[in-house]
Each structure stands twice: as structure tokens, then as C-alpha cells.
Specification:
By secondary structure, this protein is of the alpha/beta class. It folds into four domains: 110-222, TPP helical domain (Helix Hairpins), CATH 1.10.287.1150; 231-319 and 333-564, Rossmann fold; 595-858, 3-Layer(aba) Sandwich (Rossmann fold); 881-1011, Rossmann fold (3-Layer(aba) Sandwich), CATH 3.40.50.11610. Helix content is 37%, strand content 12%. It contains 32 helices and 26 strands. Helix 9 packs across helix 10 (269-282) and helix 12 (309-316) packs across helix 20. The protein binds thiamine diphosphate and magnesium ion. Magnesium ion is lined by residues 398-400, 432, 434-435. Belongs to the alpha-ketoglutarate dehydrogenase family. It catalyses: N(6)-[(R)-lipoyl]-L-lysyl-[protein] + 2-oxoglutarate + H(+) = N(6)-[(R)-S(8)-succinyldihydrolipoyl]-L-lysyl-[protein] + CO2. This is 2-oxoglutarate dehydrogenase, mitochondrial. One of its GO terms (cellular component) is oxoglutarate dehydrogenase complex.
């Protein structure tokens, strides 16, 4: 009898310890340290009636099964017998039910309450730990100790009890424990427990602290009849598995030496996904965003997303680059075939259509996760999917990466945050029990690779990947869970990898035993075909017919792939119609706003509701802001930003800003939300610019303390629709390196690799004000080093022909005035293309007395200060403010700088009355404003040229600026690279000193040097 291990010493010991000698319980309870072992905190009183604090069954965890539990139940029963009202209602019901049944049912007259309770414990043990006994490993190699609490002997049952009848039933419980269960023999109960929990699906859900959710699952798991699919449905499943299997076989035979990271050993993923999507569509899902890495990606692309097979085959043959097709040709640098994304409208079995998009991704495992979630959230916003039931994210993981990559956890933690939730992501792990050459025991410390998801109370379905129907069932259940409870769920397909990590890798070097087994192991398709043949539901001929059909389509597509000519790449989704590729000129537009609009939105964003009680200091700030709008004077950074957001919103754009503490602002300057000091209520002035404004149209949200996932999320969000300004702000710029993968793999190079544009703006507080090495630098040099504008080539700079930004991978700015910040944000939207924007944002300029703008610099009126020849625009370079003539021969030094050091230089210049020094601010570092630099070089023909920065020489913009500045000079016949004089900190390992006094000394030296009378002549 499989369930019994009665002979085992452990079981006997436990049995003796817990159950057979009931009267010892009181002494034992006293001996136990209550705080460590008990699941309730009440101490038993030895003589008087015990008053234990009841714990509803659904709340009990593993500790339910320890020695104290049975003692507890016995105490509970005694208490109930003395006074039914002394126990919780649910226990009262239980005892009443049980006694009632026992009294009226002759079949179970011999059943004692103790037996019933022990049976409950046993059922509970299966619910909690049944997965430990489930047959999950197709290779049968996994050696797992079966927990002793699954042994009936532990509860005092012997073989003699097998055919005795028992009543099982608990109020408000589904499945076995529902109160309406008929009387069953122990054998029947055990059979059903085994069938429910120890088959080819192992369910982990008892960590979910919600009775309703657990009951929902129990109802689906503890079914009366085993799961059974109709013959028709089985044929569909078979067809889908044949497609999955044949696809890999076909690629293997046609391209024997190509890397494709095949799915062999995990082919049931494809039918699993298809059935999941069908089920999801039946339940109202209209669009699915998929993220996945290499394993099986081509199969998913071809069979699930339905990228044309001929295109996949053509890419295998190396013919990816599109041929000339005239205007709008846009190829980028491209990427390997198993990274590319695509989208498609897929018809479902239920006769619906579902839009599928597979997001392009880099090699970096799991890095795409937050993008998928962000994109899903954006889709929900744009499709008014308030219930979050129409758009779903699905992530497919590897076992090694799911357990190992921190971004998995960071992404999971976004799942229930109000401004990040998507109503649940469905996770599928292709758990082939190996990561490249690494065994699970070297790759993770947790039992399952999915344990990380338990932190989220997500149910986890482990399923044997050889059992197609079980995989399909788990996938359908996951879809059902997502649509019912709107939270994450995990399907862990335990499978194997038939070949090496890729097809040219030898797996037996490192996993010899596993591969001995794999060599002789039948495929999931063979297993399923045999099962169907044995059932008599399908004939050999039927199977052959499907094989032939699939084969002939694959062959046809292969033939067609030879003439396949890729057309213009599908980089535009519907929202992006009319947007320009870098080959197509996008007219440069002005970003000034009509004065009356500025006034109107200015009033709206500086007014608080009448009865609102803001903090005293904030009241003052809002009054000051209102005055700034009224007088037009002294507009500071925060107000300029709010004006940019507000004006974009009234133009119909969506604005979303997220990051750590962005609502108030790390430096307490933004105050996008105001909190009523009495009620705690929040008010967001930017939500009240339009009549009946949708609250989400302007979203500002504090985030979880993650850079990687949150930046990834916003990036995914920004890619859905161009009519949105999406921003991520780092707490300090330094922390952006926690999201380095997003910068390197996506933001700087995504357009080039995958032809997907984004206008994401990244705000990175930067500036040397003595806060130490970790709060001074946003590592400007790294962003500049990743910029792809050629330092030795001046591109077309004529305003009507200029495509400089379009052709560059991103923009890096270090802006010094509120008005210029306003215009650079608005410029992100007021153009026909999208390009990432990296902003070195200020800290001390937020409150600097001179860092103010006049409202007239924001408007579009001719003659106003912001208005130049072309109109009011973002100034890529701010010329010297001393209003020099076009030719100023008396200027001896031209200092070029960027960022807040300008104000320090300007102050010193005033102090020293150095009228012979001009200071120009390079506001946009990348792409380099050659035209404006040359204009200034021409203006000051006799000036010594100085690049001044506060960062160390190996950091900051120096190494980016020097060759470009030289190129600009060279074209004017204005000296060599040696004529670029450096003023700044010496090279350094740390970004800044930790000693404030040293900082002040260094900063002073820089300013002094820049203003010294004698020539700078450094570094040469
Ligand atoms: C972040 C990252 N680190 C390392 C690698 C190199 N690498 C590629 S595949 C792989 C193993 C992945 O194992 P698993 O997640 O189990 O997926 P499988 O290949 O087994 O399907 C590794 C380490 C990578 N692609 N990304
Ligand atoms: Mg793996």
C-alpha cells in the first residue's frame, strides 16, 4: 500500500508521540516554549476549562501538523464540549456538523472525533505538502524525501482502517473538506488525495492567506472526477504538440549547425501557451504582451505569435537586411533572430481574436520582465481597461534565471502597487532542470526555482512537462486565476533539455548521467501519441495525417523563404502612424506656449481647494508659486516642470512620472501632491487642469525601491504610445547604475537593434555640492560614452535639414534654467519622432537665487527673451549673458561649461569683474551643438578656449566634448586639440571626496583657475 510507511521508525515515533497517548498532552504543552512552537499564543490552564484562541483552518500552516496541533484540537474539543460558545464559530460548526453526522450516519458510527480530526490533519498535509510527492520530473532523476506528514500512519491509521467509512466536512471549506461531502472510506479519501495532489501537477497554494482564493483552487484541484479532455479537444492538443515538435525537428534538419536554443524536451510549452491564450480570450482577454528569453523563442514566435514561418526561415538563412525600398528605409544594426520581437492578431479556438506581442529583448536574462509589465499597463491605460481584464502580461522564464536574477523579484514587487499593477502577470517557467552547465543545486538555495513568487502569495503549479494534458490544465488554471483574482500566478513546467545549452554544445561533459537518461527518453509527443492510441480515441492514420499536414506546410514555407523579401520593418504600431524614422526629416517645432494658456494652467496648478489644509510651509510655497505666475517673475525649477506637464496635458498628452519619492521630490521641491494635515487626504493640482480630467492622465507616483524594474517598467510603458511624456527620476543620479542593463541594452541601443522608439525622459540628480562620493555624480561620462554621434564628423546643421537628433541614439542634457527645462521636456513631444532623453538634473539649482526664469521665456511671443530667430525653443547652448556683439575681439577667454558650475563661474566673474571672460553653457551635450559652438567660437576670435567642469577629469563631459570641440574648431581653422584647456578636478577613482572641506577647497580652486588672469594652458 503506497501510502503507508507504518513500519518506518519515524512514523512509529511520531505516532507514539502525538496520538496514541492522549492524556499526556497537558504536561507536554507546558514543556514547550510557546513563542517558538505554537501557532496560537494562549497558554493552557491545566485545571480550568482551556480557552484556546481558535485559528480558522484556512489560516493554519505547516505548524498545524506539529505535536502541539493535535493537543490543541483535543483541548478545543474539550472546551467546545463544556461550552460551545467558547470556541470560534467555525470550530463550533465543525464539531456540531461532525457530531450530527456521526450520530445520524450508521456507517460511521465508529468514527471518533479524534479520528476525524486526524483525518483533517492528513487532508491538510496533502494540501500543504502533496506537491512534494507529485510526479514532476519526467526523467525520474529527482530524489525528494516525501514528508512524513503525508503518511497516514503518522495520524494513527493502519491498513485495517482503509475500508472504514469516515465523514469529512468543514464549514466554509471547498473540495474535500466542504461540508456536503458524503461519507467515504479511508481508501477513497486517500486515493483522491493522491490523485489530486500527487499526480503530475504539484500545487503550492497554502501559503496564500486568503480563504476564498484557496477554496477556489481546492474546488478545481480536489475534483470528484479526474480531469478528462474530450476526443476532439485531444486532437487539437495533439495537433499543437505536433507543430511544436516538428518545428524544432525541421530547423534541426535544415540548419544543423545553427544556434536556435531549441525547445526539445519542453515542447509542451507551445500547446500549453496556446490553450492558456484561448482560455484567456474566452475570459475577456484581448491582448497579451509576452516576454521571454532564448529558450524556445523561435517556436513561440512561429507557432504561438505566428510570425510568418518563411520569415523565420529566411532569417535562419541570413537574409534579414531589407533591400532598398526608397524613402523610410530603417534597418538599424539589427539583432540575432532569437531576440527579435513581433506582434500578431491570433484567432482563438473559441472564435475570437487575441492580439499577441512578443517584446524584443537582449541576452540579459529576465531584463525584459519589467518592460513587459510596463507595456501591459500602458495598454490598459490606452484601452480604458480599468478592470485590467483585457490586457495581460505573460512572462516565460528559465529555471536558472527565474531563481537567480534579482530583477525577477523586483518586477514581482511591482505587481500590487496601485500605479504599477496590471492585474496579474502569468509566469511560465521552462524548467529544464539545468542552466547552461549548472545544476539546480549549484544555482539556487531554494527548493523550487519558483520559490521567489511565494513572497507575492502567487499560486504555483508545478507540472510534469511530459504530461501534455497536465501542462494544458495548469496553463488554463493559471489563466483562470489571473482573470478571477487579478494577481500573479506561476506555472512551472518541469521538463528537460534534450540537447546542449544550444545545439552545438555537448551536455555530457557536465551532466553525463542526466543525458544517459535523456538519450533513451521518449519525447512528450511520443508519449501523448501512445496514450491516445491506447485510449482508442485516435488512429495511427489520424496521427500520420496531422504529421503530413504540418510537414508539408513547413516545407512549403521553407521554399517560399528563399524568395522572401523583407519589407519595411514593422516598427510602427497603430499609435505611431505618421512618426518618422531617422531617414525621414522631422521638422523642428517651437515649444513656446501662448501666454494666456500659461497663465490659466499656472493658476490651476498653484491653487489648492478651499477647505484644504496643507502644511504651513507648503501653503507658503503654493502662494509663492501663484505669485510667480501672476507677476511672471522668478519662476523656479519645480514650477517650470509643472508648467511643462500642465501644458502637455492640455494638449492631450499623457504624462507619467515615477521613481523613488518623486511625489514630493527627493529634495522637497516638487510637491506634486499636497497632503491635508488634518485628514491626510492627498491633492494633486496637476489632476485638475482640464474639466473632468481623467486622474491617470497625469500620474506621479512614488515607486518601490528598485531602479532596474521601475526604469524598465517606465521604458516599456513609454513604448506603447508616443503621445505621452514618460519620465523616471532617480533618487540621486548615482543609483541609476542599479538599472545599468536597461541603459545599456535597451535605452541606448534598443532603437538601433529593434527599431522601437521611445521618448522616455530620465532625470538624474547630478552636481558637486559636497555630499560625498555617492551623491554627487550621475556618471554623465557613461551616458556620453554610449552616445553614437561621430566625434569627427559635423552633420548637417541647417535648421531645415537637420536630423542630428533623429540620427543619434539619445539626447543628453545638463540644463541650467527653469525655462530651458520646460522647453526640453516639451520638445520630447513636439516632434515627429521619439528619442530617449537623459537629463542631468540639478540639486542646489532647485533653490538657487539666480536659477530663475521669467514667464516670458516660456511663451511664444516675438520679441520675448526666449524668442530667437526660429521662435521659442529649447536652447542647446546658452550664450554668454553679457550680451556681446556678434564679434567681440576683446574677450580673452571663452569658458565652455555645462550644468550648475556656470552659476559659480558667473559669480566669480562678477566678483573679479572679468569683463574679458565669456561663459557659454552647453545645455545639450549630446548630440553636440556644433553650429552653436562654432557661432560662439567665431564671436570670440581671440579667446583662449577653456572647458570647465566640476567632475574629475576621467568623468564628466571632458572626454566627450574634447574631440567634438576640436572638430568644430578645426573646421574653422581655430587651433588643435591642445588649444582646449581643461579646468576641473584631477582624475579620480571615486566620483567625489567625502570630506566637505576638501570639496570646498577643490571647488574654489576650479573657479579660481577658470578666472585666473594668466592663461590656463592645461593639460598640455
Ligand atoms: C544576465 C545573464 N547572465 C548570464 C547569461 C548567460 N546565459 C545565457 S543562457 C544561460 C543559462 C540560462 O539558464 P535557464 O534560465 O535555466 O534557461 P535555459 O537555457 O535552461 O532554458 C546563461 C547563464 C545571460 N544570458 N544573461
Ligand atoms: Mg534551464
Amino acid at each position: 500500500m503506497a501510502w503507508f510507511r507504518a513500519a518506518s521508525g519515524v512514523a512509529r515515533l511520531a505516532l507514539r508521540r502525538n496520538l496514541s497517548q492522549a492524556p499526556h498532552h497537558i504536561a507536554r504543552t507546558r514543556a514547550l516554549p510557546s513563542s517558538t512552537r505554537c501557532f496560537h499564543s494562549t497558554n493552557f490552564r491545566p485545571k480550568a476549562a482551556p480557552v484556546p484562541r481558535p485559528v480558522p483552518l484556512s489560516k493554519l500552516t505547516d505548524s498545524f501538523l506539529d505535536g502541539t496541533s493535535s493537543v490543541y484540537l483535543e483541548e478545543l474539543q474539550r472546551a467546545w464540549e463544556n461550552d460551545p460558545s467558547s470556541v470560534d464559530e467555525s470550530w463550533d460548526n465543525f464539531f456540531r456538523n461532525f457530531v450530527g453526522q456521526a450520530a445520524t450516519s450508521p456507517g460511521i458510527s465508529g468514527q471518533t472525533i479524534h479520528e476525524s480530526m486526524r483525518l483533517l490533519l492528513l487532508v491538510r498535509a496533502y494540501q500543504v505538502n502533496g506537491h512534494m510527492k507529485a510526479q514532476l520530473d519526467p526523467l525520474g532523476l529527482e530524489k525528494r524525501e516525501i514528508p512524513e506528514d503525508l503518511d497516514p500512519a503518522l495520524y494513527g491509521f493502519t491498513e485495517a482502517d482503509l475500508d472504514r467509512e469516515f465523514f469529512l466536512g468543514v464549514w466554509r471549506m471547498s473540495g474535500f473538506l466542504s461540508e456536503n461531502r458524503p461519507v467515504q472510506t479511508l481508501r477513497e479519501i486517500l486515493n483522491r488525495l493522491e490523485q489530486a495532489y500527487c499526480g503530475t501537477i504539484g500545487y503550492e497554494y497554502m501559503h496564500i492567506p486568503d480563504r476564498e482564493k484557496c477554496n477556489w483552487l481546492r474546488e478545481k484541484i480536489e475534483t470528484v472526477k479526474p480531469r478528462e479532455y474530450s476526443p476532439d479537444r485531444r486532437e487539437v492538443l495533439l495537433d499543437r504538440l505536433i507543430w511544436s515538435t516538428q518545428f524544432e525537428n525541421f530547423l534541426a534538419t535544415k540548419w544543423t549547425a545553427a544556434k536556435r536554443f531549441g525547445l526539445e524536451g519542453g515542447e509542451t510549452l507551445i500547446p500549453g501557451m496556446k490553450e492558456m491564450f484561448d482560455r484567456a480570450a474566452d475570459m475577456g482577454v484581448e491582448s497579451i504582451v509576452i516576454g521571454m528569453s532564448h529558450r524556445g523563442r523561435l517556436n513561440v514566435l512561429g507557432n504561438v505569435v505566428r510570425k510568418p514561418l518563411r520569415q523565420i526561415f529566411s532569417e535562419f538563412s541570413g537574409g534579414t537586411k531589407p533591400v532598398e525600398e526608397g524613402e523610410g528605409l530603417y534597418t538599424g544594426t539589427g539583432d540575432v533572430k532569437y531576440h527579435l520581437g513581433t506582434s500578431y492578431d491570433r484567432p482563438t479556438r473559441g472564435g475570437k481574436r487575441i492580439h499577441l506581442s512578443l517584446v524584443a529583448n537582449p541576452s540579459h536574462l529576465e531584463a525584459v520582465d519589467p518592460l513587459v509589465v510596463g507595456k501591459t499597463r500602458a495598454k490598459q491605460y490606452y484601452s480604458n481597461d480599468a478592470e485590467r481584464t483585457k490586457n495581460v502580461g505573460v512572462l516565460i522564464h528559465g529555471d536558472g534565471s527565474f531563481a537567480g536574477q534579482g530583477v525577477v523579484y523586483e518586477t514581482l514587487h511591482l505587481s500590487a502597487l496601485p500605479n504599477y499593477t496590471t492585474g496579474g502577470t502569468i509566469h511560465i517557467v521552462v524548467n529544464n532542470q539545468v542552466a547552461f552547465t549548472t545544476d539546480p543545486k549549484s544555482g539556487r538555495s531554494s527548493q523550487y526555482c519558483t520559490d521567489v513568487a511565494k513572497a507575492l502569495n502567487a499560486p504555483i503549479f508545478h507540472v510534469n512537462g511530459d504530461d501534455l494534458e497536465a501542462v494544458v490544465h495548469a496553463c488554463e488554471l493559471a489563466a483562470g486565476w489571473r482573470q478571477t483574482f487579478h494577481s500573479d500566478v506561476v506555472v512551472d513546467i518541469v521538463c528537460y533539455r534534450r540537447f546542449g545549452h544550444n545545439e552545438i554544445d555537448e551536455p555530457s561533459f557536465t551532466q553525463p548521467k542526466m543525458y544517459q537518461v535523456i538519450r533513451n527518453h521518449p519525447s512528450a509527443l511520443e508519449i501523448y501519441q501512445n496514450k491516445l492510441l491506447q485510449s482508442g480515441q485516435i488512429s495511427k492514420e489520424d496521427i500520420e495525417r496531422i504529421h503530413n499536414k504540418v510537414n508539408s506546410i513547413l516545407n512549403e514555407e521553407f521554399i517560399k523563404s528563399k524568395d522572401y523579401v523583407p519589407r519595411r520593418r514593422d516598427w510602427l504600431s497603430a499609435y505611431w502612424a505618421g512618426f518618422k524614422s531617422p531617414e525621414q526629416i522631422s521638422r523642428i517645432r517651437n515649444t513656446g506656449v501662448k501666454p494666456e494658456i500659461l497663465k490659466r494652467v499656472g493658476q490651476a496648478i498653484t491653487t489648492l481647494p478651499e477647505n484644504f489644509k496643507p502644511h504651513r510651509a507648503l501653503k507658503k510655497i503654493f502662494e509663492q508659486r501663484a505669485k510667480m505666475i501672476e507677476t511672471g517673475e522668478g519662476i523656479d525649477w519645480a514650477l517650470a516642470e509643472a508648467l511643462a506637464f500642465a501644458t502637455l496635458i492640455i494638449e492631450g498628452n499623457h504624462v507619467r512620472l515615477s521613481g523613488q519619492d518623486v511625489e514630493r521630490g527627493t529634495f522637497s521641491h516638487r510637491h506634486a501632491f499636497v497632503h491635508d494635515q488634518e485628514t491626510g487626504e492627498k491633492y494633486c493640482p496637476l489632476d485638475h487642469i482640464l474639466m473632468n480630467q481623467n486622474e491617470e492622465m497625469f500620474t506621479v507616483s512614488n515607486s518601490s525601491l528598485s531602479e532596474f524594474a521601475v526604469l524598465g517598467f517606465e521604458l516599456g510603458y513609454s513604448m506603447e504610445n508616443p503621445n505621452s511624456l514618460v519620465l523616471w527620476e532617480a533618487q540621486f543620479g548615482d543609483f541609476a547604475n542599479g538599472a545599468q542593463v536597461i541603459f545599456d541594452q535597451f535605452l541606448s541601443s534598443g532603437e538601433s537593434k529593434w527599431l522601437r522608439q521611445t521618448g522616455l525622459a530620465v532625470l538624474l540628480p547630478h552636481g558637486y555640492d559636497g555630499q560625498g562620493p555617492e551623491h554627487s555624480s550621475a556618471r554623465l561620462e557613461r551616458f556620453l560614452q554610449m552616445s553614437d554621434d561621430n566625434p569627427y564628423v559635423i552633420p548637417e546643421m541647417d535648421p531645415t535639414l537637420r536630423k542630428q537628433i533623429q540620427e543619434c541614439n539619445w539626447q543628453v542634457v545638463n540644463v541650467t534654467t527653469p525655462a530651458n527645462y520646460f522647453h526640453v521636456l516639451r520638445r520630447q513631444i513636439h516632434r515627429d519622432f521619439r528619442k530617449p532623453l537623459i537629463v542631468m538634473s540639478p540639486k542646489n539649482l532647485l533653490r538657487h537665487k539666480d536659477c530663475k526664469s521669467h514667464l516670458s521665456e516660456f511663451d511664444d511671443l516675438v520679441g520675448h527673451p526666449g524668442f530667437d530667430k526660429q521662435g521659442t525653443r529649447f536652447k542647446r547652448l546658452i550664450k554668454d549673458q553679457n550680451d556681446h556683439k556678434d564679434l567681440e575681439e576683446g574677450i580673452n577667454r571663452l569658458i565652455l561649461c555645462s550644468g550648475k558650475i556656470y552659476y559659480e563661474l558667473d559669480e566669480e566673474r562678477k566678483k573679479k569683474d572679468r569683463k574679458d571672460v565669456a561663459i557659454c553653457r552647453v545645455e545639450q551635450l549630446c548630440p553636440f551643438p556644433y553650429d552653436l559652438i562654432q557661432r560662439e567660437l567665431k564671436r570670440y576670435p581671440n579667446a583662449e578656449i577653456v572647458w570647465c567642469q566640476e567632475e574629475p577629469m576621467n568623468m564628466g563631459a571632458y572626454h566627450y566634448v574634447a574631440p567634438r570641440l576640436h572638430t568644430a574648431m578645426r573646421a574653422l581653422g581655430r587651433g588643435t586639440i591642445e588649444d582646449i584647456n581643461y579646468v576641473g578636478r584631477e582624475p579620480s577613482a571615486a566620483t567625489a571626496t567625502g570630506f566637505y572641506s576638501v570639496h570646498v577647497q577643490e571647488q574654489t580652486q576650479i573657479i579660481q583657475k577658470a578666472m585666473q588672469q594668466e592663461p590656463v594652458r592645461y593639460p598640455y
